[in-house]
User: Fold these one by one.
Assistant:
Number 1:
Amino acid sequence: AGYVVSLLADFGIHIPAQFTGPAGHVLMKDGVPVLIDGQTVTTIFNLPAFLICIALAILLVVGVSESAKVNNLIVAIKVSVLTAFIVVGGLIVISRFGELSAANWVPFIPENQGDGKFGVDGIMRAASIVFFAYIGFEAVSTAGQEAKNPAKDMPFGIIGSLIVCTIIYMLVAAIMTLLVPYGTLNVPDPVAVVVDAFGAQWAWLAKTIKIGAIIGLTSVVLVLMYAQTRIFYTMARDGLLPKVFSTVHPKFKTPWVNTLLVGVLTAVAAGFFDINVLGDMTSVGTLAAFAIVCLSVIYLRRSAPELPRGFKVPLYPITPILGILSCVYLITTVPVGVLTFFLWYMLGGIVLYFVYGMWNSNLQHGEPQDDAPEMGEFPAPVGEQP
């Protein structure tokens, strides 16, 4: 939404400032509050974010076929945009490195101001916030059926993408914080802010990068919303959720009820909540899940040593133990309010399972899953045919 607002402004289209951010958020620019008629602007609702999510939900209801070629094209656009940013920004940095580093990298770690702001505590706090950017890497595992040698290809794909993306993240962050003061980057469209600082001669590149960012981020929202609808569909088929969530539209052959629900929930969250709060909520759940996965590795090594394993965690048990400790530590850096929400959310999930899911589960009753409707463009669960 931030990049959409920035791009529209380049073409002279301005959305009212009150409708470009979460509820109760003071609009900032270059690290200072935005003033309109001498007064600070407090945002009411992020209208672009809301409309983007609703539009993608409708698209998912109508039906969208995700092909490898389309996905590869989107990835190529995203990587090309980031490469252009790194090359142009890097050349500017190299030509003025001494001046820029003295201005923006001194001190390299700002003094701790308490409450997880700056200092080493701030670095750890930032790690817990940005952790949600890494949750997509496990999506590589969903392509297991298409891999020629999953036991080899899956670990290589996950670890390889982790390394490449981490290097890209670091290069982009270094260039951004060198070219502009870090205090100006606490905005929805930080890359756009930096590109605008390249100078008027790079205005065409600024528009190109913003368009690329919009395409890339839109594809991420689309894929993750699609994944959530598939999870609800599969859980409903298994009896863990009410059957209405597996209802397939007679014309579009998509699970339209749960898709609309996911779309509305996502749109409302995007419209009213601050990105940092949403990031914290996502990260806490993901960190907890990753810690449980690490614990499961240790448990399965002891309880089921005979299981066939195509890939084994290196340096066992050191790696899973470090994984648990690091995840738990990052969880402790999250604000108490978010942790409280997470505990209530987890408690609600447990109650839902014991009140509904456990008693209606097909597995509990030994019932086969042979009632899957024809899904059209919406794929069947892994291992099954519609």
Number 2:
Amino acid sequence: MTMDSAPARHSGQGGTGPAGGSAFAPAPPAEARRSVTAIHPPRGPRAERARPAVRPQRVRRRQGVVPLVTVDALAVVATAAAAPALELPSGAAVPAVVLLAAAHTALHAQAGLYRPRLAPSALLELPALAGRAAVLWCGAAAVLAAALPGRALGWSALLGAVCLQVVLACAGRGFVNQLRRRTAVRRPVSALVVGPGAGAGAVAAALHGRPEYGLRPVGIADTGPAADADNGALPLLATHEDIRRAVIQNSVRHAVFTRPPEADERTASLVRLFHDHGCRLWLADPAGTAKVTGMRVAQPADQLWGYAVQPLLPRPSRPLERHAKRAIDSSLAALALLAAAPVMGACALAVRLSDGPGVIFRQERVGLYGRPFTLLKFRTLRADEHESATRWTVAGDRGMSPVGSFLRKSSLDELPQLWNVVRGDMSLVGPRPERPFFVAKFSSVHPGYEARHRMPVGITGLAQINGLRGDTSIEDRARFDNHYIDTWSLWQDLWILARTAASFFRFRLGGS
């Protein structure tokens, strides 16, 4: 599957040079500038290296969370040292302070106080800081009163600890934010503005005129009609290939969308490109009313010279839960393989006696991030390999034996896919994998179909337990799959597995 299939809206005349070269020239009229790919050279000796398009790269964050975590922890330590009623035995003082700092960091992370911001302000964060400080010290006071009743914190000491904690955390965060603003002015990073018409031009102008945001616009990825208004001196990038080359040549690390990425198919296709090259995504919405369904919009809201702006984070962005999902998948799949070994042996013997040699059917499918893998099934039909890769369904085929029909209706033909799960090609729960021919076809017809590959593909999924198997609506499947990804949780996976287990041996028509 490739992302370079976006239709071009111009003839490609003028402006594009070789893949690794540059084509710098004075800004021509808007009509002639829509093909320019090399925009402004990156500042500094940065090599132009294209990153692999197999899976997204981790964004290298210049403004990481370490300084904020450090000042928050120092505020906790200073508050604990300044609280006279919190004198603990020497052996318990250090562990207690470490636990307080860890709890404080967790509370701030849960509130989104470590998420990326374009215009961070410690004063705007003051209510959140005060609330978390009150929760932290009230909890500490309760634990201290239960463990050491003679050292319980009084109300005055508790209020003093909360106020001191808020003041120190606010001051430390303000200092970090000031340093970041100065660094952003001195060393801005390249950014592309993605959107149609004058709206994208206005956002680009705001970034260009306000260097304290740290983003230097180098071009506009125009997703509107060719007749859009002029956008100043910045070149307009009209094709997918133009945008890809601009990202590489200018070391672009940020993409600012002026409409939700799912507003149209062309805009949605750019999300994958930016993630593949390690770019951070933002949504600048002048009205502040945009609804994003395929991405996770982080709170609290930020602003870009009056424009409501929020970071767009891919769903899901919970690495611990994702690792837990993988561990559960591999463990349950291995146990299921052992438990189902007698059944699989009987199925293999039945296929061998009924249909001859070739018990296992292998077929290329598209998995996570568009990566192909070989899917395993029990063979239910003698079919030409090319035909099976481009034929939509074989349900009701006259060449299917009674054994093959039974395996399909009972879903027993899917059991070998447990080995795909153990190998890491698939998950137990996720969007069903499809053949490359149909992935390319459906992606061009159904908006949002390609977004299904944000999560590992699975043996079963939300669409399947709702009856969307075999020859059913592709649009409905894509909608269910994307809803599963947007609302994903481990509990939802367990619920889907339970629903699947309850109906696993029910006969059905069609196949997946």
